[in-house]
Amino acid sequence: MFKFFKRVKTVVSSELNAMLDKAEDPVKMLDQFLRDMGEDIREAEAAVAKQIANEKILKRKAEDAQAMVEKRQSQAEKAILAGEDDLARRALQEKNDYENQANLLQQSYEQAANDSQVLKSKLDEMKKEYQEMNLKKDSLKARAESAKTRTKINRSMSSIGGDESRRGFERMEEKVLRYEAEAETTEDLSTQSRTLDDEFRKLDSNVDDELAALKESLGKE
To answer: Residues annotated as region Disordered (predicted)?
Structure first.
């Protein structure tokens, strides 16, 4: 009967921490522990119900046997009053047989009632432990998720500024500097080209102005 409590004792014992250390995913293991405990509780409930039913049957049989004791006692008394000693003797014999049965059944009933009480107490203890483990599971799951998140963030932060990231950043910086140098060189060449053309256009403009002024002075407009 007590085999149903075996796994529960394992879960709530110090072995829990060792099992969690070996587990790849503590959250999944905690869920599995609770599923096992729930199954144990259902089996224990069925066992308790069966024991209580057996207790009730024994009680009823003991009461029936005691009722027959009283019945045969009354019949023996009637037989004696009627002068039927032989009939009275037979009634008393059966009365004694039922009395023995009643005593045995009463003892069995009392033992069954005691067993039922013990099992019900154990079942209540299991349910209490299950509730405590369920609450603890929620706390442990939250802590596990928090630890995973912190680990992920710490790993991400440790990779920032690392050799690979730094080298990649430096390559991009060099490429940007090269782009800027190329842009400045192109701009200088373009500026130089535009300056030379501007000077020639300025020269052409001065000649035209001078020609116009000359014509004006000669009245050749």
So the answer is: 134-199
